[in-house]
Design a protein that fits this description.
This protein has 219 residues and is of the alpha/beta class. The protein has a single domain, classed as Rossmann fold, CATH 3.40.50.150. 28% of the residues lie in helices and 25% in strands. It is built from six helices and nine strands. The strands form two sheets. A seven-stranded mixed sheet has the order 5-4-3-6-7-8-9. Strand 6, helix 6 and strand 7 form a beta-alpha-beta unit. Helix 2 packs across helix 4. Bound molecules: S-adenosyl-L-homocysteine. The site of S-adenosyl-L-homocysteine (SAH) has 25 residues, from strand 2, helix 4 and strand 4.
């Protein structure tokens, strides 16, 4: 029977072979932040499968390929200040914090109070320091202006639309980058680079909707 360690190695091989994982620094971070700590007890057996997994409250932790792809596209460096919208399980938040290091900072806004709590608990149980992380409860669809400007903004729930007038864009530094799934039902992962004003659609994805003032309306 394949043990979980074998499954983990199989996952990393798959991520590299498919080029979703490109750099050593992202692989190192994904090895340090063990996905097993971020999935519910009943789903632990699927921790290293390339699939999104429900984490409660109708939300999901993204598939490893999508997480790796987003981290690579964000081009994170030590010392950066990052805003995440949608902490969910805390998995991506922990990865962002490892990639920016203790001199960097990750602010994550989560709409569901119970998930913000879960994210903090998961990060602690995974043995990742909370020193450079702040998880806040609220509507992050318009970003978090008091913490701006940011080097990077990662939105992990789908925005209905994104144009240059969106408040998230004003919260980016002048060479900042924003990554967000944009659209209804099936979305495009969109990368916006403020320096040249370029908006590129880079991957079709399926995220849960962002609900709030600049998101979708609650049903
Ligand atoms: N990054 C997460 C997965 C995100 S799932 C992880 O690594 O596990 C999307 C999350 O966005 C959900 O937790 C959902 O509650 C949250 N969300 C939805 N709308 C939001 C909003 N307006 N502001 C903040 N969080 C929001």
């Amino acid at each position: 029977m394949a043990g979980r360690e074998d499954e983990k190695e199989r996952m990393f091989r798959f991520l590299r072979d498919t080029s979703f994982l490109k750099t050593e620094k992202v692989e190192k971070a994904m090895r340090k932040v063990d996905r097993e700590f971020f999935v519910p007890e009943s789903e632990k057996g699927f921790a290293y499968y390339d699939t999104a997994i429900p984490v409660g409250y109708g939300q999901t932790i993204s598939a490893p390929t999508v997480v790796a792809f987003m981290l690579e596209a964000l081009d994170l460096r030590e010392g950066m200040r990052v805003l995440e919208v949608g902490a969910g399980s805390g998995y991506n938040c922990a990865l962002l914090s490892v990639l920016v290091g203790q001199k960097g900072r990750v602010l994550s806004v989560e709409r569901v109070p119970e998930l913000a709590k879960l994210a903090k608990a998961n990060i602690a149980s995974a043995g990742i320091s909370m020193n450079n992380i702040e998880i806040m409860v609220g509507d992050g669809s318009g970003g978090y202006p008091p913490g701006a400007p940011y080097d990077r903004i990662a939105v992990t729930a789908a925005l209905p639309s994104l144009d240059l007038g969106h408040p998230l864009i004003a919260q980016l530094k002048k060479d900042g980058k924003l990554l967000a799934p944009v659209g209804s039902y099936v979305q495009d992962l969109v990368l916006f680079e403020k320096k040249n004003g370029k908006m590129s659609r880079i991957l079709p994805v399926m995220f849960v909707p962002l609900i709030g003032k600049y998101g979708f309306r609650e049903e």
